[in-house]
Every structure is written in structure tokens, then in C-alpha cells.
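Request from the bench team (R.T.):
"We need a structural guess for the complex before ordering more adenosine-5'-triphosphate. Sequence and SMILES attached. Just send the C-alpha cells back."

Command: build protein-adenosine-5'-triphosphate structure.
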Amino acid sequence: MSFQLHHHHHLLLHISPDNGFEDGLLQGSIFSSAGALKKYEGLGHGFKEINSEPDQQNSFLTGIQVTFNFCLDQVSLFSLLIPPLKSPSNVFGCLSAEELAALTACINQLNIERRQVLNELLDLKGNIRVFCRIRPVTLGENFGHLRPVVALDSSNIHLKLADNKTKSYSFDKVFHPGSSQDEVFSEVEPVIKSVLDGYNACIFAYGQTGTGKTFSMEGTPDSPGIVPRVIEALLKLAVDSNHAFLITFSMLEIYLGNLKDLLVPQPTKPTDPLPPWSWTIHFSSKGPKGNWSLKVITSNQIAMSSHTKFETFHLSVVPVSMIRISITCFDAPERRRETNKIWLVDLGGSERVMKTKAWGRRLDEGKAINLSLSALGNVINALQRKKCYIPYRNSKLTQVLRDSLGEDSKTLMLVHVSPEEEDLCETISSLNFATKVRSVHLRHEESIEIKNQKEFAMMNLQQKMERIEDEHLHVRRQIKKLNEKLENLTGIALPLEEQLEVSPFSTEGSLTDHDMVNTRNKNVKAASLFQLPRFMRPTICSRRKSGMDQQTSSGRDKVISKKKRSLSNCAESVTFPVKSDSEYKSDCSISKSTCVLELRMKSSAHNETEYSQDASECDLKKIVFPEKEKSYLKTTSQNGQLSHLYRNGSQRLGESSSKRLLKVDNWLDLNKNDPPISGYAPRNTRVPAILIPEKKHGYSGQKPSSYGFATTEKIFNQYSMERQVDILTVGRTVSEVVTNKPPTLKDLFDEESRSSFIVPSHAMNDQTMMQPEDILHGSSIEDDECGSAFLYDISCGDLQEYNGENEVFEMYMMQAVKDMAQCSESSMLKNGGHQSFSSEVDDSIINSKEDFGVFTPESEEERHCEEVYTKMSMEYSRDGDASSQSSAKGTRANSCRSRSQRASFMGDRNQEEPRVTLVKTQGITQIEGLYNFLKCKVQLSCATALLGLGLLDLGFEDNFFYGLML
Ligand SMILES: Nc1ncnc2c1ncn2[C@@H]1O[C@H](COP(=O)(O)OP(=O)(O)OP(=O)(O)O)[C@@H](O)[C@H]1O
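Reply to R.T.: structure attached below.
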């Protein structure tokens, strides 16, 4: 026995002849969605046609049972429950299902093609496109006279300036004053399609106040602008696609540099409770590109479904209003990303503050807007130059737009200009800015030939796109027809997308992201529930038991959700863990440090800023030392030297110059003063750095071992800091070297003869180099990734741009002079040249900040310093020596070095102390040159003598040599 279901209410039953049914009674019952019908009764075999009752036409067959009655015995021959989802699996049903599948596959294919073509088209057009719109003459303006701002054609704008001068600008599109909102949106539309494909986008309106930014973005009820059209287009595209989308909507305002969510109800009285939420912005230098998130979810996501609602949320005073629409699609891996967003930004008026003659709060607003615009300009400039550091953090605007401004996003800028002559200055400034933005993707002006080729390619792609879209439309119509047929047949078959059409956006009330996802799932479940024949659907009771009842939203449920709404006013508060410093071992600059801002609401003087951020970025910035520095500092502090090092930073400046130049003569002195250290002094020992510029030096971080020579332990301990000390004078970063043997006299002689040369810092220094001023002021200057120098103060964490050398030079020179003065009575002299750090100079580091400004002589020494400083300044301005030249070239280290040497020299002369050995420079004076010459001679003869005796290679640590020297 077999059967064929030809129609949902028409069954053809075939009874095989060999079953011996002739002797009994065959009874067939069919079941339909309307209930059981006894339809067949009779003898014989063959085909029997069974139809449901005429009045049951709308019901469909759900099961069949055939029984055979023979001599009062009833045998059930077969019974079949027709699977509910196959209810339309009659001939028509099968056909339509197959057709539907084929059409769906076709539409998917078309989607892929459309996406590719669109991307190609947008790539050709450029990821950053700039349009210019000229405002029409408005009421109250003089209609009669000629305007100086003219749209030459669809991409050129022409300005007539004074004295018959003209100026032209080219943009991707120029909208003349008569252009309609439709025309403007036709250029925006492709970007919206690309947003649905998962790309980030940003559309911003820029221009002087009153030039039509708001008109373009919002429009009027009669001629809606970009925002309502974008929303409408997005929803339509989402509905037309084969996927489910979750779309959330936020509206922010940046007021005086603070972010505010405009969709969160504002407390009107001070006693009103504040909504229990906070915004958290998390920045991280780690992870994938642009890994940061700003999560502000408001209760009005659904406002986007209607323009009127949107307008009700728009506040009248919105200096920089930003609308964010984020789109999530879980089931389309071919999209660029699962969640993407589009920003629609109405930037504040860009006019100059001076021109507006604003004051008070208006002035502040103007300044804040201009600051954020200039930050935007800087970001765009950095993007244009493909810099590795993009200054997104300089303003809230750029922080927020961060991942919608990069390479992988589509940016549209609409620059608005006034047609009026009196606004010409502002017009030029706006057009210049817009040109700058446009040059991000047009680095070189294209030749006409390339332009034509591009246009041709774009035209082809446009045509292809139109063809695909026509086809798409055709297929969609077919699908719709099929669905309607099926719906007529079954009364249920609503496809998922149509279920979704009514789901999140038509629902009143508040929905969070989570709710929206749930709603989507619920709708899917509800849809499949409705596809079941009624008799197979769970009863109300069973639904209640299993909790499924809540899945179909009833009016009662809505009430419940509305009750909850007051609570769900609170936006989702996302707390991100603060990463430890160790994760941010920045080698570059403070800008790489972790920065966590927590913006909590607080009352403020202005209504507009009631929810403003509490903490500024600077307050929370952490300084992360480069790893090398960190470990070094750690080591030194472990040795109890760090504080000492910093406290005595200024003194070291002077001391280092002397210390590094204590040579053979001083060594002898030192050896006399300090008793020899007994014990075995192995070769391969760690020894203080001897100036060997050719060698590559490194700091091993180990504590220097004592040394079997009569050098003082003190000196070795000091050498553990020498890395910093050394650089102060000749830009060398050597602190210690591991040599196979201790230095010999020859080494010293070599060194001595070399010490009169200035070795370029870049030739010898491959380590982080700290400059004198770094240590003086507890600051370090480091190049950021892009090579721009920043000076930041370790103590206060301020980040200042490094403004060239002069400032540093002055700081350094002042300090050098001070140091010399202090050296005059320092223990170094008293100890016969032995160095020790004196606490007397602590104040110099404490007061080091004074050195940035006016130097007020307080003591005799300071007056002396001032004198010397004046002399030096004069000398510096007079002479054109190599150091000043190198300064001009920007060789910071060299210039600082030579100046310090000069400073030391002059200081020494004034002190009338025989401290010439402290200064080994480029032979600044003849006396010193003569001295050097004689000394070299003596040393050379000494070395020759030693060589003759075969002692040269023994090294200083050798007791024999030591004995000789004594
Ligand atoms: N293209 C246009 N067609 C018709 N009217 C326009 C057009 N552009 C601007 N207007 C009118 O000009 C006036 C000023 O425009 P709008 O308020 O949009 O300027 P704005 O740049 O947004 O100013 P603000 O910076 O102060 O927000 C409005 O009355 C607006 O209707």
C-alpha cells in the first residue's frame, strides 16, 4: 500500500491487489489540521482518491491511517503521521521548496557579487571621500549680487577673490546650491551598503556655522537629511538581506571635551536619582589593531525605526553631535566583521573664535570645538603620512572615531560653505581643511588619463552593480511570491526575515543588546512553533511548564518589560580589567602606556555637562618605563643607589666630567689614599669602563666585583651608575665592560690619547641615551615610534613636545655652571680629586625646574654662575664652532657635550684651581693643549719604559706592577 499526497487536502491512496483485501473492508482515515475525517471505506484495490471536506479547504492533511476489517477483526494496515514541516510537501509544496532553495542560493550568490563589485567601486572612489556643498542664499541675504563661490562643475569649486584673483578646489563631488537632499544621499548610499557588508564608516559634516551642516545631516520633515535616510536604508537593506541583524543606536554629544549620551534621561532636579551606570573606555596598546571599545547602550535603540522619534531625542544645543549605529550579524561570516558601526557626525562650527567675538561659555565651546577639529586634522594628517603613531587620543572626537577613520573604513566628509562674500575667509579655511583630508587618499594629483581610466572602470562597475541589483530585486520578488503562495496554502510560513521585520524595531520599550539577541532567538523559535500543525504544538499548559510561553510576547509581557524598563535605563556598564604595567613594556613613549578612563556622572555647573567625565586623561596616565630602564633602575635601587643617583643628579653632571677624566695621575693619587684591597683579583673580572669607543659596550647588570688594584671600592660602586654619568660629558653610554683582563696602562694611554676626541654619539651609542637634562630634571627624552621627540617629566608624567635644543642647552648650561660652583667646595677637591656625591647639591635637583625660567642668584656662587653663564652665552652666540653647527643640525648630544665642556672649562679657570685634568676636551685653549701634549709625551715615555721592561701586559692589578708604582 502506498499513497501520494498531491495536495495538502488531496490524497491518492494506492492499494496493491495482492493483499487479499477483497474479502474484507478497507477503511482509511485521514487527519487534517482541522481534526480526523473518516474518508475511505470500501472493498477492492487500486487507486482511491481522498479529499478533505470542502469546508475544510484551509486545513491540511497531517496523517493517514488505513485499517482492514475482516470478520470483525480490525487490522491496522499502516498509519502515518505526515511530518508537519512537510505539510506542504505535496507536488506543489515540493516544487516551491526546491524553487525557494534555488532562489535563496541565487540571492546569496548575487549578494557576494554585489559585495565584490561595491568594494571595487568604493576602492576606486577612495576610502576617504570629500564632498562640498554650497548653501543656497537664505532669506535675509542679498539675492541680487554675484556670489564669489561658484560650483564650476560636479567636482570643482571656484572662488573669486579680491583683485580679480581666483582660486579653485577639486573634490569628489561638488553640490551646487540647488542640489537636493536626494542627490546628496545618492553619493552616500554606496557607503551604507558597505556598512551592511561589515565595514566601518564615518560620515561627518564640517563647516562654518550656518552653512547647512544640520540641514544636510538631519534635514527637515519635508526633506529629510542623511541621518534619517541612512537609518531607513540600513533597515531596508537589513530586511532585504537573508540575514538577521542586530542594530543598536546611540547618540552622543561632545561638549567642552566631555562625552554625554543624549538618549539617557537627564535628571531635572538635583534630587532626581542618577541613572546607575557608568561609561568605561578602555584603551589598550595590545591586541588587534584598534582594540578599544566604547560601550554606551541606551534604552532608545528602537528610536531609529522612526524619524519622528529620532527628532524628539535631538537636543537643541548640540555642539558636536554624533550618532552611532552599530550593526551585528551573527550568521554571516562573509561580512567584514561581526559587529561594525557607522558614525554620523555633525561637527561644530569651524569658524575662528576671534571672529565670532564670543565670550564666556560660548568662547569655551568654540575653543573646544576648534581643539577637537584640529585634533581631527592631526589624525588625518598622520593617516595621510602613514605615520605609525596616529594621535587619536588628543581629543574625545578622535578617540571615539578611532576605528572609523583608518584605512579599513569608509569616510565621507561633507564640507559646507557659505556663498557669501563676507564668509570668504572661513570658506577658504574650510576648503583648505577639506583638501587636506582629501589628499589622504590622493597623495599625488592624478593625470587626466588615469582619471579617465578610473571613471571608465567606475562606470562599468556601476553598471554591473545596477544589473546585479535588478537581478537581486527580481529574485526577491519571486521569493516573495512563493512565500505568499505558501502562506496562502498553509497560513503560517513566515520566513525568518519577515519575522524579524516585526521583531526588534516594532517593539516598544527598552531593549539592551542582550535583550535584542534574545528577542531574535525567541522570534526564530516562535516562528518555528507556528510552522507546526496545531495538533502538534504544545498546549498552553505544557508551554508554561517548559517556559516557552514567555517566548511569544504578549501584551502582558510587554507590560512586564516596560516595568523593567526603568531599571534598564541604565546602560550596560562594562568594566575592563586594568592590565598591569608589565604588559605594557613600552619602549617608546608614554603614549603607549595603558590608560583607563572611567567616566562617571557627576553634577556640574552647566546643564549640558551634568554627566561629564570626572577624571581627565592626564590624571590617570601611567608612565611605563622602557624595560631596559626599568630593570636598570631596579638594579640600582636594589643597590641602594637609585635615590642617591637621582638626588645627586646635578652634582653628577660636574663629577662625571671629572671622574671620567681622572687618568693616570689621579689614579696614582687615589692609590696612595686608599689602602690596597687584599685578596685575589681574578682576570676576567668586571672592571670599570675604560673609554674604548670602538667596542660595543653593554651593561650586564651585575654588581661590580672588587678589584685587586688599589682603586677605591667607592669608585667601582659609583661605576655601577656610570652608564648615566658617562653620557653626561661625551655622550657615551658605557658603564661597564667585561674584559678578559683588567685595563693595562697601555689601555689607559690609548684611552688618554683618545679622550681628546669627541666621538660622535651615534657612532658609539646603540643603547638608550639619556641626556644631561634628563637626569637633571628627572626627565627622559625619547623618540617615539615616528621619531618625534617628546620630553616628559618622570615626576609629574606630563608629556610635552620637545622643542629643540636651545631650551635643553640652556638647562644644561645653567646646571653645568651651578655644578661647577658647587664643585669648587665639593668634597672632591677636598679629597684630592676623589669623587663623592654630596648632598649639598640636592637643592639643585629639587629646584631644577627654576632652570627653565629665571635664574635668581642667591649666593656668591650663584652670582658667579650667572656671570659665567652670561659669558658662555655670549661666546655661544659669537662663535661658530663645530658644536654649535652640530647643534644647528640637530645633533643634540654633541652640542650639549661641547657646551658642557666649555662650561666646565670656564668654571675651572675661574676657580683658579689646578683642575685642568678634569677637563679633557678638544684642546679648547693653548694651555690645555700644551698640557695634554706634555702629558702624552710623559705617558708615552713611561709606556715605552714599561714595554722595555716587559711589564706592559701585566696589568694594573698585578702586584708586581703595583709594587713598582709605589
Ligand atoms: N541646502 C540647503 N537648502 C535649503 N536651506 C538650507 C540649506 N543649507 C542650509 N539651509 C538653511 O540655512 C540655515 C542654517 O543651516 P544649518 O542650521 O543647517 O547650519 P549649520 O551649519 O548646521 O549651523 P550650526 O553650526 O550653527 O549648527 C537653516 O535655516 C537651513 O534651513
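Two things stood out. The chain has four domains: 2-82, 127-263+298-440, 266-294+577-623, 627-954. The first helix runs from residue 91 to 125.
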